[in-house]
Structures are given as C-alpha cells and as structure tokens.
Amino acid sequence: MNKMTFGHWIKRLRTEQDLTQEKLAEKIGCAVPTLRAFETGKRRPSRAMAEHVADVLGVPPEQRAEFLALARMPVESAVEPAAYDESTAPVAKARLPRASNVLIGREAECNVLTRLLQDEHCRFLNIVGAGGIGKTRLALEVATTLAPQFHDGAAFVSLVQVEAVQNVPTAILDVLGISMQGALDARARLLAELASQQMLLVLDNLEHLLPDEEDITAFVAEILRRASDVQILITSRERLRVSGECVFELGGLSVPNGGGAAEQSDSVMLFLERARQASGNFVLTAQNKPAVTRICQLVEGMPLGIELAAAWVRTLSPEEIAAEVEKNIDFLTFSQRDLPARHCSMRAVFDHSWNLLSEQERDVLAKMSIFQGGCRREAAEAVAGATLTTLADLIDKSLVRRAQGGTHARYDMHELVRQYACERLYASGKAEASHRAYIHCFLDQAEAATPHLFQADQITWFRQLDHELNNLRAVMNLALDYRDWESAVRIDWALWRFWWVRGEHCDSRRWMDEVIAAGGLVELTPQRQSQVELVIGSMAWASGDAQTGARHCQKAFDLCAQHDDKRTAAITLLMMGANDIGDGHYARARFYLEQCATLSEEIGELWAAGFAVGWSGLTHLAEGKIGEAIAYLERGLALAQQSGDRTTIHQMLHDLGFTLLANSEDQRAIGLLEEGLNMAAEIQDRSNTGYFIKGIAAIAMRQTASTRAVRLLGAAHEMLDRAAVPRVRHATQTLLYDQLVNQAQAALGHSVFKEALAEGCSLTVEQAQSEAYAFADCIAAQTDN
Fold first, then answer.
1. Quick check: 90 pLDDT over 50?
2. Contact 708/771 with Cβ under 8 angstroms?
C-alpha cells in the first residue's frame, strides 16, 4: 500500500478544489514558500496551523484526526490515511520513478492537466513542447498526483532508449513488471493485460518514434480501443495528429518583466534552487538580481537552460553567465554524471530535434532564424520559402511558435532555438542569400507602408510596423554591412514618418551618417543623396540640433535641383522653413513654406501643405501678429483634417492651441490641446504627447499656481527628454513658458516648485495623461459655470 504524506494529502485536496498554491496560501494566511514546504515534506505545521488547514480544505470529520496526526508525523513515518484503507477505495499501484528535485512552479499547468485527465472525454493527452522545456518532470508530477485515483495506479515509461516502435510494448511490460508468457508476442501480451486495468499510462519522449508515425499512432489507438479504462499521457516534441488527441502546449516558466519582485517569478526561483545546489552560499542580492533576471529572460524561462546556466555559479558571476548565454549557445553545457547526454547541453537537445526534421524543414527553420521578434506568414514565405504546411509541421514539432494576438498571425521561435538555427544557416553557406532576401522583403514592406503613414488609416500601419521594429532595425544594419546603400536609404526614407512619430530620430540619422562616412553617397543618384541629407537634417532638427539640421537640409535643397522628385522637394522646403523659424528668419521661412504649400497641394500631399500653412502662422506669431497667426493655423488645421493625417492634425491643434494660449484664450486653447492629446496618445506619438501635456500644464499654472500643475510640467519635461526632442521649439514659446514658470516659482517658493517638478518626472505617461485630462475638465467646467 502506498504511503500518503501530509503534503500529498494537501496537494490532492487543493487540486480537487482547483486552487493554486498562491490561492491556498492566501486562504490559510501563510507565505507561498511555507505552503510549498508543507507540500514537499520539508516542514511540518504546528497543531494550530494543521487544524486551520483542515478547516480551509474541508477535511471530512471522519478523516480529521488522521489528517492532524499525519501533519505532525515525521516524513519517513507517513502512512496511508484511513480514507484510503476502506474497501471502496482504490488501491493505487504506482510504477513511477522518484523525482530527483522538487517541482518549482507549474501550478497552473498541473491544475489544467489534472482537470483534463479527470474528464472522461480526454483519454489521450499529449504534453507538447520544445526540448528542455520540462515535459518529463511535469508529466511525472501529474502522474504522481493522479495515481491514487486509478484502481491500478499509474505507470511511467521512458522511451528515450527505445529505438523502434516494435520495442515499445516490451518497454511498457518491463515497467508494469509483467513477464512474457506462452506464445503471445509482446504487443498482444500487453494489450491483453491492459484490457483489464484501470490506470494512467505515461509514455515519455515519444518524438523520435514519429518518423515511423503510422505504426506508433496505430499502436496508441489500439491501446485506447482495447483497454477502455486506460488513459494515456504522453510527452513529445510534436503532436501525433490522431483522432481523440488532446494537446497541451507547454512553454517556459514565468520570467520577471520588471513589474514586480524578480524572486517571485518561477524561473528565478528555479535558478536560485539550482544555484544553491551548485554553491551552497549563493544568494540573490540587489547587485546580482538584474543579471539573474537577464539569464531567465534570455532562455525565456526554459527549465533546462536555467539549470545549465545556474550550474556555472561555482565558476562565474551571474553577470558573466548572462554575457556568455547571450553570445554562445555552447556555454549552456555542464557535465553531470547522472544525467542523460541529451540533457547535458542545449546543443544536444537541439541536435536531437534537428535530426528528426526533413531537409525542407531544416532549410526553412535555418532561414527563419534571421527574423528578429518573429514575422508574418508572407515574410516567412518570401525569405525562408516557408509554406503553410511547413510552418504547421514546425509548429507541431515545437520549433516554431504562433504568436498570440493581432489580426495577422505571427511566427517566432524560442531565442535559444533561434541561435541554434542561425548557426545552422551559416554552416549551410546560405546566409548571405537569405540576408539579401530579408532586406528586400522589408524594403518592399516599408515602401508599401509609406503612403499609409500620412493618411487616415495610419494607426493600423503604425501598429504593423511596431511589430516589425526589431526586423526593421536588423535589415538596416544588414544593408549597411553589405554596403547596400540603395536599400538602406530607401528603407530609411520610406519610414521617415514612422521614425519621427516613434521618436527614433537618433537611429534614423545614425544610419544615414554611416552611409556618408563609408563613402556610399557617391554611389547614389542625386535623388537618393537628397534623401540622405534630408533624413539627417530633419532628424537633427527634431532632436534639437538646429545647426546640423540647417546644414544638411540646405544640401538636400541644393540636390533637389538635380532631380524631379517633387515629394522629396516639398518635404525639403518644409524643413528649410522650419529651420528658418528656429533661426528667427521669418520672412525667408514664409518664402520656403509658401513654395512647399503650393507644390504639396499640386502633388496631393495635403498633410505637408497643412504643415506649411500652419507653420507660416507661427512666423506671424513670432512677429506679434496674433490675428494673422490664428488665421493661418486655422487654414493649416483644415488642410490637415482634409488629408486625414492625425500627425499633422494634432500638430496643428498644438500650434493653434499654443497661439490661443499666447493670446490668453485659455478656454478655447484647452479644448484644442485636449483633443490633440487624445490623438497623440491614439497613435502613440511620444514627443507630441509631451508637448500637449506641457501646454495644458501652462494653462493650469496660469489659472492657479499649484504643485499639481508644476508636477504636470515636470512630467511633460521628462517625456520630452526621454524622446530626445527639445522642450520648446520657438522663441515665443520660450518667453511664454519662462513667464509662467517665474510666476509659479514666485507663488509657491523655489524649493516647493523644484520638489513638485521633480515629483512630476516620476509620473508614468498614463498618470500624466490622466492629470492633464483632469485639469482640462476642470477648466471646461469653469466655462460651463
């Protein structure tokens, strides 16, 4: 008869009530580690605690004395409780290996698997996941938990050393302790034996038998058909794709995301447990916590990866381990005499999976390793030649993942799998051809997106490009590495608006600086040269480097005379005008902006026309002609609204709102600034969100000098600094803001003002937006009254 420990009893009752350790710990009022220690037999509860646990779990009165006695009994003396000695209770015959380590995490997974196996409709359950993800350990834990619920218990059969399907029945018979009798072959003998059993049969590591999948799937189906009271739980790197198969896809342990204490995540807990086994004096400190967190993130919570990394703490610091994991998959190797070779290195794990792939699957997987952050199906097809069938096969083999969410499916792979596949790509000699296909694929995507980034449907396209941000950075760097100046310039220019709105001014400029530094400019046409200069000039201007901006915009302007690209010319004129506004050359700025407006309307670029007309209004504002400024800005806003381009619309809302603010029309100004803030937040325009909040803060300070208003100003400054854009762009703005700041400092006192400003810097974007809306509502209410 099996021994039932206090911990097993708690775990069984908790599972039956669908409680995680966290939920039960909360109910009984103890820490999760304490409950975990009870369940694993590492700690006995006090009499009072045991009685409280019995109350919470609803232990029946007739079993309570046995439960309490078991709670206080040493682990080695544990006995079967009375409830399991009744004639009506099943006598579980567990043929299960003893786990070498306590299972860390996986509470939710254990509960789901237990519920599935308790469902009469789920007789065949497959735990599918990549090598090293922890399938075997999880299956053993579930089998141990459920064994008492089967009359004949559970049996765990490892198929790692079984090389052919015909040997599987013998392996199962050996575990069941059944000898061959008479003339029956092993398969017939097994089926005859299982027909009278009520049990859970675990078949571990089945994937290497799937090349001969017709036989193995037929064998599993025959067991289910002939043994109606047998349930089968298998672990495999791929699904069997047979009728009645329930599939549970297993991912990594939870990893820290920066939102809470790192030590609460399962992956960090596993690292600490294994690190302490390797070096008894290892502790998590404030100094090494970031590195431990980084290790868990790099292996994406893969248990084997964490264990192999943690084994190095006797030799290296966590910081050194993280650096090695990041650059070299072969680092995740450790010699452990009692472990199978396939679990002593990540390379061995992936070699095993690789050897089970067809040539086509290997080719696609290797080429897909190029993608950074995954890709859509069209990109996988264009770069890697992936068909839907091949993608489905690689997903079934747990080597490619279908990312959740969004209207378009995306596919990616575990980072360690990607590193391994990338090595295979370079070894195949196909890396350069694949890189060039990758560049051209995203060049096509960038140029297809360009017109939409200036139209009413831009939000959809911005979000699509957000998903591809890592790929876009990668292709830009690859294009430069291959000295493919044409592609680099075309991609950077095609995404000019995207980089601008997302605050990526520095990188966009850096890439074009590299083209010039490498001598690539002379290999380009005048049209492309002007685009290089314009990108550098405009991004320099956006980040506050007006001198560099003016110099490169002038070069772009001169080059425009050598080609007939009217769109590039129009944007160059726009930036020439913007630079002159900053330099105080208002008449010359109007000259460029008027030309820009005329040319932009001619070619249908109404967004640029809206900017040009609106910014002409700013020149009038700078000259003190507020009436003319408002008229121009209102016309600019109308053109922007006609274009549907939210970026231009909210820029005009800001400039018109600021001009009304300068004219002391606070009530009208606050409405425009609030509307603009809504739009900026909608398309996640990081820099302009800061400008709108700063405008609302200015009105709030003028209405009443308060620490709340100053805090909002500090939040706006922090957002603008983070986006690497200037806090103000025009002299008129500087004068007005300085005036309001001086008034607030005088009213509050310098130290209070400075403290409130610093507090504002710690506000999140969401908090700052919420406070800005609250101010706007307050001012609007004053108007209504």
1. no
2. yes
Residue 89 has pLDDT above 60, yes or no: no
pTM to 2 decimals? 0.75
Q: How far apart are CA 739 and CA 503, in angstroms?
A: 29
The torsion of the CA quartet 375, 381, 384, 388, rounded to 10 degrees, works out to 90
CA distances from 391 to 19, 468, 579, 635, 660 (A): 37, 19, 51, 52, 57
Residue 45: CA atoms inside 13 Å, Cβ hemisphere, count? 28
Q: Angle of helix 6-16 relative to helix 47-57, nearest 10 degrees?
A: 30
The span from the CA of 306 to the CA of 313, in Å, is 12
Q: Supply 10's token pair.
A: 């708690």
Mean pLDDT for the stretch of residues 420-441: 95
CA-nearest of 668, 651, 606, 656 to 628 is 656
Q: What is the pLDDT of residues 381-392, one digit of tens each?
A: 999 999 999 999
* Among the listed residues 495, 478, 453, 259, the one whose alpha carbon sits nearest the alpha carbon of residue 383: 478
Cβ atoms of 501 and 650 within 8 Å: the answer is no
Name the pLDDT band for 4 (thresholds 50, 70, 90): low
CA 639 remoteness from chain centre: 39
State the Cα angle at 77 between 74 and 80, rounded to 5°: 120
| Both structure tokens of 121 | 């409709």
Going by DSSP bridges, is the β-strand pair 199-204/230-236 parallel, antiparallel, or unpaired?
parallel
Structure confidence at residue 371 (pLDDT):
96
CA 450 → CA 320, 453, 454, 511, distances in Å?
A: 43, 5, 8, 19
pLDDT of residue 181: 62
pLDDT (average), residues 734-750: 82
Which amino acid does the sequence have at 57? L
Residue matched to tokens 């109910």: 27
Nearest Cα neighbor of 210 from 259, 168, 165 is: 165
How deeply is 575 buried, as exposed, middle or buried, from its count of CB atoms within 10 A (0-12, 13-18, 19+)? buried
Q: What is the C-alpha separation between 528 and 491, in angstroms, rounded?
A: 11
* Joined tokens for residue 199: 């049990």
Q: In whole angstroms, what separates CA 229 from the centre of its chain?
A: 43
Beta strand pairing status for 199-204 and 245-249? Answer: unpaired
Confidence of residue 368 (pLDDT cuts 50, 70, 90): very high
* Segment holding 154, helix H or strand E: strand 154-158
User: Which alpha helices (DSSP H) does 518-625 contain, by range?
Assistant: 526-542, 546-560, 566-583, 586-603, 606-622
**pLDDT range class, residue 608, cuts 50, 70, 90:** very high
Q: 């957002």: which residue's tokens? A: 719
Nearest to 86 by CA among 171, 1, 192, 210: 1
Query: Between residues 1 and 56, which one has the greater pLDDT?
Result: 56
Q: Which two tokens stand for residue 360?
A: 């086509």
759-772: average pLDDT: 85
Q: Where are the beta strands (DSSP E) in 101-196?
A: 124-128, 154-158
CB atoms within 10 A of CB 163: 10
What tens digit of pLDDT does each residue of 313-335 get? 888 999 999 999 888 888 887 65
Q: What is the distance between the alpha carbons of residues 89 and 151, in angstroms, rounded to a whole number?
A: 8
- Sign of dihedral through CA atoms 8, 9, 10, 14? positive
Residue 341: what pLDDT? 57
Give the tens place of pLDDT for each residue, 145-186: 888 888 888 999 998 888 888 888 988 998 888 876 655 688
Given a contact cutoff of 8 angstroms between Cβ atoms, the answer to whether 747 and 706 are in contact is no
Integer Cα distance of 158 and 105 in angstroms: 23
* Mean of pLDDT over the chain: 86
Give the whole-angstrom CA distance, residue 493 versus residue 486. Answer: 11
